[in-house]
């Protein structure tokens, strides 16, 4: 079972699968992270303050995304917020950090298609539109596994 499968099975719990049912808890978690951080601009500031500003800028820009480690995610986002996210996901904080380290660069990249942070953009709407395709492109095996169990 891959990282995404572990996260999806943890956040979806015993919910009956529906077309995007698995994405809904994840959408809430990611929207919450952005809201508590002050949107994409606030998240950019957090990464900048932790010395990861260049990495965040690479996710926004049109070039290649710089990777970050789970430790760098914890430094930028904060251990308390990682623990809160992990609790919502029903996983260990280290797994939540690994998930964010792997997928946050891709999510920020997709939310900034013009290569810049738009302070007026509705990130919740953007996430809602983005998650189904992102989950599928990232190996949405959980959808087929859960559909097979239905």
Describe the structure.
With 150 residues, the protein is an all-alpha fold. It has a single domain, classed as Arc Repressor Mutant, subunit A (Orthogonal Bundle). It has helices spanning 3-12, 23-37, 39-49, 53-60, 70-77, 79-89, 93-111, 123-137, 141-149. Helix 2 (23-37) packs across helix 3 and helix 2 crosses helix 8. The longest helix is centred in the last third of the chain and has 19 residues, at 93-111. The two termini are 19 Å apart.
Which helices and strands, and how do they pair?
Blueprint: H1 3-12, H2 23-37, H3 39-49, H4 53-60, H5 70-77, H6 79-89, H7 93-111, H8 123-137, H9 141-149
Helix pairs in contact: 2-3, 2-6, 2-8, 3-4, 3-5, 4-7, 5-7, 6-7, 7-8
Name of the CATH superfamily: YidB-like
Taking the sheet with the most strands, its summary is: none
List low-pLDDT spans.
14-22, 141-150
Number of helices: 9
* Helix/strand/pairing category: mainly alpha
Strand content bin: under 5%
> According to CATH, what is the topology?
Arc Repressor Mutant, subunit A
- Based on the coordinates given, report the CATH architecture: Orthogonal Bundle
H/E topology pattern = HHHHHHHHH
Kindly state the mean pLDDT as a whole number? 80
Helix percent band: over 70%
Distance between the termini: 19 Å
Overall morphology: globular
- Name the CATH class: Mainly Alpha
How many β-strands, per DSSP?
Answer: 0
- Gyration radius from CA atoms, angstroms: 15 Å
